[in-house]
Amino acid sequence: MANNDLGLLALRLGIGGTLVAHGAQKLFGAFGGGGLEGTAGAMHAMGFRPGKRNAVLAGASEAGGGALLALGLATPVGGASAAAAMAAASFVHKPNGFFVTSGGFEYPAVLGLASAALAVGGPGRYSLDAVTGHLFNKRWTTVLALAAAGVGAYTTIKARQGAVAADAAEAGTGDAAEVAEGGRD
């Protein structure tokens, strides 16, 4: 049992730490990131409107969700938050195929999958959830957090599809329906 708990700790620290770093890039410009203004411009260009609100949400979901995962505190909320952000990121990269070497969705998909798995599987013994008697790590919390994250990711992806299709129609480039479905960016 202790080996499983150590494995969960290592996974939480690795996935959580990576997400915190990516969120800090978006929010604060840390680690060579664009900061809030740069990320807002990039988000707008990718079809996430308004760009600044989406930059804040993406950065907070990554940094906050990653921190909760690393600490093993409110693990279902942290994992669901990070998984939702990674679902939207995966959708952006979907037209490039699977592998990250081609700009594909491999990297955000793996981060999202690991985050969702931690939300469902729990943080293990070496966590703040264990210290608090799993006050914020209940079955209903997991179901509610994952459901809310799913709705949030779906809504964000659909709004982006609409914005990208509208941009394509306005520019007269390509098939707006194909662009909206993620067939082309």
TrEMBL record:
Its main location: membrane. Transmembrane segments: none annotated. It is a multi-pass membrane protein. Keywords: Cell membrane, Membrane, Transmembrane, Transmembrane helix. Pfam families: DoxX. It is found in: Cell membrane. It comes from the Bacteria. Belongs to the DoxX family. This is DoxX family protein. It comes from Kineococcus mangrovi.
